[in-house]
Amino acid sequence: MKIGTPKEIAEGEARVAMTPASALDLQKLGFECCIEAGAGQAAGFTDAAYSEAGVEVVKTAAALWKTADIIAKVRQPNETELKRLTKAKTLISFFNPGGNEDGLELAKSKGATVIAMEMVPRISRAQKMDALSSMANIAGYRAVIEAGNNFDRFFTGQITAAGKVPPAKVLVVGAGVAGLAAIGTSTSLGAVTYAFDVRPEVAEQVESMGAEFVYLDFEEEQQDGAATGGYAAVSSPEFREAQLAKFRELAPEVDIVITTALIPNREAPKLWLADMVAAMKRGSVIVDLAAERGGNVEGTVRDEKIITDNGVTIVGYTDFPSRMASQSSSLYATNIRHMMTDLTPEKDGQVVHDMEDDVIRGSTVTHAGEITFPPPPPKVQ
Ligand code: NAD
């Protein structure tokens, strides 16, 4: 069978779902590979590099979608792309199945199989295919780099002949995958780093990375995320008040705030309110990684960087992985290659779509003329 990758068509998207390196691995699984001309250009992979790796370079998107049996891409497909699917084709990409009913209906009407990368179950066996995590890891790292780029002081403290420099104080709100990556980057740059999460079980991870976990003066324990499958639930009003009071206390102290707090299937909770922004020092920086879901910060403007009247920069970009397109393409392409390994048990270039397999079942959102989203809960943890 042939696996092909088109050029991403979403504006500003620089990632690509196949790299020359991943193509070599896909060929070892027995697949032929093809790519649309120029698809890897923005991520630093030339057509010549693909050709050298044995990949056929196809001139147009239409020709690519026609010739490939399996199409691997990054972003949710648009209508034109979905109309190119047929019963014999499999699409693997982010798909936003919970908010893309029209896309599901169209893929179903074509009889195509669609594997949605955000639906890969978060179980140990599937970590190698977990593109949400590989992209969140990049976003967390890049958020700190972006903050540093907008912050006109050192992260690390220094004692120099020209004077003593205090370390920057960084607060990371939400210690999931992106938050932990931000914490690791911040501590490695030498900043004094604080982190808060509603899930108390992350305190140990936060502390093992050299940051300080922020505890609340709250009589009940911080929520136990284990009850919600490792994800956070909406906080009680009392808990939220205690959290906001703690943030109010920290706002004049911290130089950089990175917010990453999300609750599945909801708008991002507003946690850093206008009065906290107003209480921050001139020159402070906030990076709101939740901007795509409405933002954790009052005043975030999606996809923009603004400077408030009191001189605080608020960054609301939603394309951090694309800003590191070479790295994120390599990791995403590896996630896809692992998915293909599981789909090709005989390594003979023939896909076996085993709907009894938890990972494949969980990720498949249309198959054999049916919408198969949402999936049943996984059998194996
Ligand atoms: P996410 O992106 O859904 O949320 C980010 C963080 O925000 C979470 O840690 C959440 O607890 C936190 N949060 C929510 N509301 C908050 C609030 N009011 N204040 C502060 N923080 C708040 O999370 P994620 O990065 O996708 O990770 C979710 C869970 O999945 C974690 O337990 C993570 O370890 C786990 N996970 C498991 C696997 C695996 O086993 N394969 C892979 C990735 C993630």
TrEMBL record:
Membrane-topology annotation of the record: Multi-pass membrane protein
Domain Alanine dehydrogenase/pyridine nucleotide transhydrogenase NAD(H)-binding span(s) in chain numbering: 148-316
Catalysed reactions, semicolon-separated: NAD(+) + NADPH + H(+)(in) = NADH + NADP(+) + H(+)(out)
Location in or out of the cell: Cell inner membrane
EC number from the UniProt entry: 7.1.1.1
Primary location class: membrane
Annotated keywords: Cell inner membrane, Cell membrane, Membrane, NAD, NADP, Nucleotide-binding, Oxidoreductase, Translocase, Transmembrane, Transmembrane helix
Domain Alanine dehydrogenase/pyridine nucleotide transhydrogenase N-terminal positions: 4-139
Alphabetized GO MF terms: oxidoreductase activity
Family: Belongs to the AlaDH/PNT family.
Function: The transhydrogenation between NADH and NADP is coupled to respiration and ATP hydrolysis and functions as a proton pump across the membrane.
Name under which the protein is recorded: NAD(P) transhydrogenase subunit alpha
Organism the protein comes from: Tritonibacter scottomollicae
Lineage: Bacteria, Pseudomonadati, Pseudomonadota, Alphaproteobacteria, Rhodobacterales
Segment of the intact protein contained: 1 to 381 of 524
